[in-house]
Design brief:
Number of strands of chain A: 0
CATH topology of the largest domain in chain B: FAD/NAD(P)-binding domain
Radius of gyration of chain B: 22 Å
Mean pLDDT of chain B: 96
Strand order of the largest sheet of chain B: 7-16-17-18-15-21-22
CATH superfamily of the largest domain in chain B: FAD/NAD(P)-binding domain
Largest sheet of chain A: none
Largest interface: A-B, 54 and 66 residues
Strand content of chain A: under 5%
Low-confidence stretches of chain A: 145-150
CATH class of the largest domain in chain B: Alpha Beta
Shape of chain A: globular
Low-confidence stretches of chain B: 502-510
Mean pLDDT of chain A: 88
Distance between the termini of chain B: 39 Å
Order of helices and strands of chain A: HHHHHHH
Strand content of chain B: 15-25%
Oligomer: heterodimer
Number of strands of chain B: 25
Number of helices of chain B: 15
Structural class of chain B: alpha/beta
Number of domains of chain A: 1
């Protein structure tokens, strides 16, 4: 796959990303590059026709708001973008709904698989498990009668 | 250029089915029978199990765990690695319910037989209930919520040895604690002389042959290189055992001109469609440490659903929350306070839900949510919401509610807020990891194999995986797959005299 598959629609994808994950609005170029690299890598493993459909759908997301708001997606304010994408997410047409689900999934993959984000949201899983927490055990008392005999 | 290789038995797939058959034929291998296992995925070294979400998902799962059904409304997760899906499940080891085996109506298959064989693998895989002091809050809150509602949560028997509580089971245990076929049955088989070749994709099955493509290890990929040189091979064997999983086995038959006329292949696909439900507590809980799936609530017989504890990783969690934007982000930032429940619907085999192949021979899974399945998922979601609130959650995320977040003040309205009208495929995330059916056992006029996995009318061809299930199992399937694979191996041993070459007959006699 060409490394710059997303390049022609990058500005649209970034607008979608900032709506799906508002924290990405504060991204610098390096963070965007990281997010886009994750998405590019995921797409590289998909069949050619899927990649083509994705780019077409992203372009469609840019154009559809013109009918409702008189402006393309990238020129809408934050509230209008949310309203538009919510309408797409709830579309009566399955193809539109699943198209958005796919784009949303890629954005979430790009954002939430980055190490810095895992730490920021408080995800702390570690291969050493309990030992990595200093042996901390559960804090909620358990009704002993519910235990199944081993 | 295609290289020819000769064996007596070739097994396609190394998961719960293929790994078990390989082990059980080990004594034949010791006696000189040439047995080969071909596995499409790589064999990872222990230090390659890092627990890093994207890294491991790409290395262990087909399509990174995001294999989509034909209409794109559900993702299917299945392993593609040495050990198959036994590398990526949570180790849950339940014996099939008697009522399910009875409902299957497979001539010659009794529940007693399944139970007896299941117990053999429970023993072999060190299946036991986790010690109480290793149970985390996420699981305890589930038990507590169930108890307050008058439901009895049951503890999962787990196939663990030395669990350290990484919570990373679904990314492959980083501590080699889970006793999948990669840890038990395949090493046993190899110790007896069974050969396992990885990065080897079965492309086509002919008359007692399997065409295999061995791929090179690419830059940056995890796993060891294949023991065979990259290239195309034609493997000749007197017996061919298909154990590539419910999707892989059906697809392999359907793209093989010599055998694709076998009737009923691909039919009766079921998968226990699942939602990941999330609830927020007002204080941190232990959730991403400790075994993630220690308890379940079995309502299959009464209400067609099963609830299981679970704990997923940031991206999988984010993907499964409905919606986007500020509310979505806020819930994600509460990760340390999140409790999770996996909702599984007990779907039924229907004529529409099946595995086919596209023009290139790739698997295509057609799945339509029936009204019964949707209603079961909604009932399960309501039950989960009640459990969450009973356990003290301040808000619950329910995919089949709109808006999906339900505050504690509305805990009394879950029946009204969670409703089938909000179950909108393509908007909400549905996934499945219990893939079943496609080569069902039963009578020749309606099924693919007999109760020993012998394909009707094709004596040299056997099936030994979850595709044998004529309908949903209604519990986690791995132990039952092993029990059935044990039967398949027994059938092969019984038929070896008539099917294998003279050298093997001599081995049997010895």
């Amino acid at each position: 796959m060409p490394a710059n598959l997303l390049f022609p629609v990058r500005h649209i994808l970034r607008t979608v990303a900032m709506t799906v994950v508002p924290e990405s609005s504060s991204f610098d170029e390096r963070a965007w590059a990281e997010l886009e690299a994750v998405i590019e890598e995921a797409l590289a493993k998909r069949p050619h026709h899927v990649r083509r459909q994705l780019v077409v759908f992203i372009r469609l997301l840019q154009l559809l708001p013109v009918a409702r708001f008189g402006k393309p997606l990238t020129r809408l304010g934050a509230a209008q973008r949310v309203a538009f994408l919510e309408s797409i997410e709830r579309s009566r047409v399955l193809l539109i709904r699943r198209g958005f689900w796919g784009v949303r999934t890629l954005v979430l993959m790009g954002y939430y698989t980055r190490e810095a984000v895992a730490a920021a949201i408080g995800y702390r899983a570690h291969r050493d498990g309990w030992a990595a927490r200093g042996g901390t055990m559960a804090t909620v008392p358990l009704a002993p009668t519910l235990w199944m005999e081993p | 250029m295609i290289e020819d290789r000769e064996y007596d038995v070739v097994i396609v797939g190394s998961g719960a089915g293929g790994g078990t058959v390989a082990q059980e034929l080990g004594p034949l291998a010791l006696g000189g029978t040439r047995i080969l296992v071909v596995e499409q995925g790589p064999r990872l070294t222990d230090d390659e199990f890092t627990g890093v979400e994207r890294d491991m998902a790409d290395s262990l799962y087909e399509d990174g765990g995001g294999f989509l059904t034909a209409d794109g409304t559900m993702t299917l997760a299945f392993g593609r690695v040495y050990g198959g899906s036994t590398v990526v499940y949570t180790g849950t080891s339940l014996i099939a319910p008697e009522r399910v085996i009875r409902h299957w109506h497979v001539p010659g298959l009794s529940h007693d037989d399944i139970e007896q064989r299941s117990r053999k693998y429970m023993m072999q895989n060190n299946v036991h209930a986790l010690e109480p002091d290793l149970i985390n809050d996420n699981n305890r809150l589930f038990v507590d919520g169930c108890r307050k509602l008058g439901w009895k949560a049951q503890q999962f028997p787990l196939n663990l040895k030395g669990c350290r509580g990484s919570s990373l089971c679904n990314l492959g245990c980083p501590n080699a604690a889970k006793q999948g076929t990669n840890r038990v049955q395949l090493p046993n088989a190899e110790a007896n002389g069974v050969e396992v070749v990885t990065r080897a994709e079965a492309l086509e099955v002919g008359d007692r042959t399997v065409t295999v493509r061995v791929s090179p290890k690419r830059d940056g990929e995890k796993g060891m290189p294949s023991s065979w040189a990259p290239g195309m091979y034609r493997v000749r064997a007197d017996i061919v055992v298909l154990a590539g999983g419910a999707v892989g086995t059906s697809a392999l038959i359907l793209r093989s001109p010599t055998i694709r006329t076998i009737s009923h292949v691909g039919a009766r696909f079921t998968c226990h469609p699942a939602h990941i439900l999330v609830a927020e507590h007002d204080h941190p809980i232990t959730n991403d440490v400790g075994h993630p799936k220690s308890f379940y609530l079995d309502r299959a017989e009464e209400e067609r659903f099963v609830l299981e504890t679970c704990m997923y990783f940031p991206f999988i969690t984010a993907k499964n929350l409905t919606g986007f934007g500020a509310a979505h982000s806020q819930l994600m930032r509460a990760f340390s306070r999140l409790q999770m429940i996996l909702v599984l619907a007990c779907d039924r085999a229907t004529p529409r839900n099946r595995v086919t192949v596209d023009s290139a021979g790739r698997p295509v899974v057609h799945y339509t949510f029936t009204t019964d399945t949707i209603e079961a998922m909604v009932r399960a979601t309501r039950a989960s919401a009640r459990i969450f609130f009973a356990a003290g959650a301040v808000r619950v995320h329910a995919p089949s509610a709109d808006p999906p977040l339900i505050a504690r003040r509305d805990a009394g309205r879950v029946d009204e807020l969670i409703d089938v009208r909000h179950f909108q495929p393509g908007r909400i995330s549905v996934s499945a990891a219990h893939l079943m059916g496609g080569c069902a056992m039963g009578q020749p006029h309606s099924a693919v194999t007999d109760s020993f996995g012998r394909v009707h009318g094709v004596p040299w061809l056997r099936v030994a995986d979850s595709s044998l299930f004529p309908d949903a199992l209604e519990i986690n399937p791995y132990l039952t797959i092993m029990a059935l694979a044990d039967r398949v191996a027994e059938g092969i041993r019984a038929d070896a005299g008539s099917l294998l070459g003279s050298g093997t007959v001599a081995v049997r006699a010895s």
